[in-house]
Amino acid sequence: MTGPTLRGQAVLPGVLALAGCAHQVASAVAPAAPGFVLGVWHGFIFPVAWVLSLLVPDIAVYAVPNNGGWYDFGYFLGIVFLGVGANRTRTVYVTRVVRR
Questions:
Q1: Angle at CA 21, nearest 5°, toward 75 and 14?
Q2: What is the pTM of this model?
Q3: By Cβ atoms counted within 10 A, which residue in 8, 32, 65, 98 is the most buried?
Q4: Cα R_g (the chain), whole angstroms
């Protein structure tokens, strides 16, 4: 192994160890607060909520407090798969033209 591969294998355990130390502030987690379904919805409407949050001070793009990891997971799914991260277009590249 050389260069970047060896370096990546050396850095990965350190990054995983630091990620294992991360925790959410207890005051930001409430069991009866928004959960997975509202996280998906908030992720899906993120672009609109972001623009409105710049204009209206009472609108936020993320619900605090929430119920923790499930809300975060739903928010991620809403943004990546349903919202702005979804790429519904198809790009066609013409590499050769066949003439008859």
A1: 105
A2: 0.60
A3: 65
A4: 21
Q: DSSP string spanning 67-90? A: -SHHHHHHHHHIIIIISTT-----
d(CA 59, CA 53): 5
Q: Which helix (H) or strand (E) holds 1?
A: none
1 pLDDT more than 60: no
∠ CA 43-49-51, nearest 5°, is 130
Query: Is the distance from CB of 67 to CB of 28 less than 8 angstroms?
Result: no
Handedness of CA 71, 74, 80, 82 (dihedral sign): negative
Q: Is there a contact between 26 and 64 (Cβ–Cβ < 8 Å)?
A: no
**Coil/strand/helix, residue 24:** coil
Instruction: Output the pLDDT for position 3.
Output: 56
